[in-house]
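Dissemination and training. As part of the outreach component of the grant, students in the summer workshop were shown how a complex can be specified as a set of sequence lines and then modelled as a single object. The example used during the hands-on session is reproduced here so that future cohorts can follow it. Participants entered these lines:
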Amino acid sequence: MSAPEPLPEPLLAAEGLAIHSASAIIVRDASLAVRPAEVLAITGPNGAGKSLLLRALAGLMPDGVRVEGGVHRPPGRVVLLPQGGPLTPHQTLGAQFAEVTGTPAEGRAVLWLERLHVSQAARRLHLYPHQLSEGVRWRAALALALAAEPRVLLADAPAAGLDPTVRARLLALLADWARETGAALILAGHTRDGVAGPADRLLALENGRLAPPPVSAEPVTAGPPPGGAPVLSVRDLRVTFPLGGGLFGGRASTLVAVDGVSFDVAAGETVALLGESGSGKSVLARAILRLLPGAGGRVLWLGRDLLAMGEEDVRHLRHALQALFPHPRATFDPRRTIGAQVAEALAALAPEVDEAKRRARVDEALADAGLPAVAADRCPAGLTDGEAARAGFARALAPAPRLLVCDEPLATLDATDREDLLAHLLHHQRADSLSIVFATEDADAACRIGHRVLVLLAGRVVEEAPAGVLTQDARHPYTRALLAAAGGGRPDLAGDPPPALRLPTGCAARLRCPRARDFCAQEAPHLETVRPGHRVACHYWDADAGEWDAGEWDAGEWDAGE
Amino acid sequence: MLSFAARRLAGVLPGLALLAALAVLVAGDGAARALAVLPVTLGLVGGALLLGLLAGVPLGLAAGRFPHGPLGAPGTALAALGPAVPAFLAVALVFAAGRGGSGGLLVAALAVAPAAEAARIARGALTAALDGGFVLAARGRGVPAGRVLRRHAVPAALAPVVAAAGGMAGALTAGAVLGEALFGLPGAGALFLEAARAGAVGPAVAAAAALGGMVLVLHALGRILRGWLDPRERAA
Amino acid sequence: MDAGRFDPTTDTPAQAARRRFAAHRPAVHGVGALAVLTVLGFVEPLLAGPFATDPIVRALDAGHTTLALALVGGTLAAIVGAGWGVLAVTIGGRAERRLTALAQGLAALPLALLPVLAGGLLGRGVDLLILAVAAAAAPAAALATRTTLRARARREYAMAARAAGLTPAMVLWRHTIPNLAGPLLAAVWPVLPRALAVESFAGVVGLGAPAPVDTWGTLIGGALTAPFGAGLLAPALLLAAALAALNAVGDGVAASFPEERP
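and obtained this result:
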C-alpha cells in the first residue's frame, strides 16, 4: 500500500494573530492556513472583525489599529478585494487594468472580463465605473483582482448585494479560478451572502475568536398545511408606477411592477413569494396591505375588498393585518423608545384598551418576542440587528393580528437569530392560526416556512407549487437557479437580471436561460398545470431535466447588456 | 466632455441675458461703461483665485496626507483660519497696514480667503478619498503607495475644490469692490461703489449686473473644470 | 436573551447629539467666545464712563448691535430659505426642480453686493439693511434645506407607522418633523456667519447701518481713513473671532446629527 500523498505546504498561514484598536481587542489569537487551490470561508456577524482580519493578512492595516502575531505570506502576490468591490471613479476600466497588468494593451483585460462573463468587454474598457450596471461593476472589480494574478486572493463579501443567482454564480467562478490556477482563496462574509457555498472549509469569527463553526441544530420547518377556506384572496393584482414624461412633454410611461398575480391564503397557512430584485415581491407585499398607491385588482380580506375601501375603513382593519419590513431598525423612529412606539401602535390599532392594560400588553409582547423588559426603554440605535428584528415582531404581533405580511424580515440577521425568529414565527402560526405572506429571495427560507411557494419574475408568477414539491421537482429554470443558489451550488442562470424598464420581449428570463430558444422571444409563457397544485410558466417545462446540462451551455452565457 | 462644457455654458446664458437686460433697461448707455471696466475686476478676482488655489491646494493636500505631522500643520492652520477672515476683511487689514499699495498686493490680500477655503476642502476631500474603498482596493491590487496617492486619491480630492471655486468668486467680488475703491483701481467694483454712494441708480445697477455676470461665468467654468476631473459630474 | 447586552449608558438621540456637540472642542470654544462677546457688549457701557471714545471700548460696545443685526437678518433668511426648501420638496416634480434651479442661480451671484446697492439707492436704514442681509443669505439656506430634506426624510419608519395604524398627519407631526429638526438646524446655521459677513461688508464700504448705530463693519470702515491702530484692529479682530466662533459652532451642530447608517 503506497503512503497517502502529503498535503501541500500552506500558501498563507497566520499564527496567534491579534488585532487591537485603541479601545478594544478585536481579534485574539487567530490561526489559520490555506493551501493551494483551496477555498476558505470566514463567516461572522457584523462588526466581528472579518474585514480587519483580511486586511491584517494582506498587510494593509488602517491607522490606529495594531496587529500582533505572525503572518507567513507566499512569494507571489497577495491581493485584497475590499467590501463593495470599489473602483476608482475617475479612471476608465482600461486604465485601471493597465495599471495592474503592466501593459496598456487591452487584450489581457478583455480576457479577464470575458472570463467573468462580461459581454462587449472591449467597449466597456473605455467606460467609467459609474456608467456600468451593478452586476458588471462587480464583475469588473473581480476581474481586476484576478488580473493581478495573485497567489492568494482575499475577498471581503464579494458580490454582496447582488441577487442570489448572480452572486452564487460569481462565487463559483472565483472558486473555479482558484482551483485551476492553484491559488488560495479566502472569502469573508455573512452566511447569508453565500460565501459558504463554494468553500472547502469554514471558519467562524465570533467574539474575537476564530474557530470552526458550531454544528447548527435541525432547521425548523412549517408543519402540514392546515387547509380550509381562504381568509385572504388576491385576484389579478396589478401595481403600476407612473414615470415622468419625456423632456419635451413626451408620453409618460408606466412601470408595471406587479402584473396580474392571484393567490389565496387560508387561516394558519403561509404563502411564500420567492423572487430576486425587480420580481415585484416587495411591491406585492406592500400593495396587499394598501401601503402603496396605484394598485388595481382585488384583495379580499374576509370577503371585503381592501383596495376598494376608504382610507379610514382600512385603518380600522389594520389591527388584523400587520407587517414586517426588511430593515427592522429603520422601521422605528430613532428618537423614541421601543416601548413607546409599540404602545403607540397599540393605541392606534386597539383604542378600546386602556392605558394600564396597554402597558401590560407591551411588556407581554416584548417578552414574547424574546426581549427583556429593559428593552422598552431603549431607542432603536441601542439595539443589535437581532434585537431590532424582535422589536419589529413585538410591534406587529402585539395587536394579535390574523395576517402577517413579511417583506424580507430576516435579511439583516445572522444565522442564529434567523433560526430563532423563524421558529418564533412558526410557533405563533400554530398557536394563533396566523396567516403569513412571506416575501424573500432566499429559496431555502421560502421552502421551509412556506406551505405554498409562488415564484415571481418581473411581476408575474412563473411557478407555483407546494413547498415540498418545489424542492423536489421545480420545472422553471429560474426556480431551479434560486434553489441552487440557496443551497450553495452553482445556478444555471447566466448574467444579470434584466433592468425593469427594459425587459426582454417574450419570456423575461430568456436572456439568461440555458433552455432559451427563438420561440421564447416571441411569446411570453402562460401558467400550465404540471400536476394538481403545481403550475409553471415556461415553454419547455416538460423537457427532461437531464437533457439540458446547462453547465456547458454557451449561448446563454452573456449578461443582458446595457 | 465638450458637450458637457457647452451645456454648462448654455445654462448660464439665461441668467446672463437677464442681467444684461436689467442693465440696459436701467442704465441705457451706461451699461457699456460697466462692461468696459469689468476686465480689471476680472483680473483681480481671477488672479486671486489662481493664486489662492495654487497656495491652498498643496497645503490642504499635505494636511490631509499627514494630519498629525509637522508637514500638515500649515495646511491645518490655514484651513482653520479661513472662516474667520473673509476677503474684504483681509483687504481692509492689508490696506491699512500698508497705507495703500500696488494691485499685486491687493491680489495677494484677496487670495488669502480662497487659499484657506481651498486648503480646508482639499484636506477634507483627501482624507475622505484615503478612507474610501477605492484607495484600499488599488493598494490591495498591488499598486504602489505613491502611485495610488498621485493617480487615485489626489485627483478625487481636487474635484470638490474646483467645484467650490465658483462660490469663492462671489465672496472675492465683494473683496474686489472694496479693494478697487481703497487701492484706486478703475474697475467695475470701484464704479459700483462710486455709483452706489452717490445714489446713481443706472451705473450702480449696471455695474452690479456686470459683476454678477462675471461671477456666473466663473461659476460655470468651475463646474466645467470639475467635470473634467470627475467623470460622474458629466453624467449629471 | 442576555439582559446584560443592554448598556445602561445608551441614550436617546437627543442625548447623543448633546454628547457629540460637547465632544467637539472648537464648537464649545465657539459658544464660549460668543457668550463672552455678548456679555462684554452689555457689561461694557456700565464700566466705560470716561473711556467711551476709546476705540477698543467702542468696538466692544458695537458687539451686541452687530451680533443682534446678524441674528435678526440670519433668522429671517433661515425662515425664508427653509420655507422655500420645504415648499420645493413638498411639491416635488418639475416645480421642485425649477425652485431649486432658481435658488442655485441666485446663490451663485455675489449677493453681498445687495445690501450695498440697497443702502446706496434707497437710503441707509436698519430695517432695509436687515431685509437686504436676509435676502442675501436666503438662497443658500434654501439649497441646504432642500438637500437635507431629500437626504434625510427616510420613508421606512413612516411606512411602518402607517402600517401600525397612524394617520399620515400623525406620522408627520410625531415622527417626521422631530427627526428632521436637528439636521435642518445644522443645514441653516451657516446663514448666521453669512449674515454677519454681509452686514459687516456693507458697513466697511460705508453703506451699512446709519450714523448713531455702531457696528464692527462701520467702525472698520471709519478707521480706514485714520492711521493704522487699535481703531481698526479692535473691531477687525472681534469680527474675525465672531465669524470663527459661529463657524465652529456650526461645525459642532453638524457633527451632532451625523448621517445614520441603516
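Residues 1-9 of chain C have pLDDT under 50 and may be disordered. Students were then asked to discuss how this feature might be tested experimentally.
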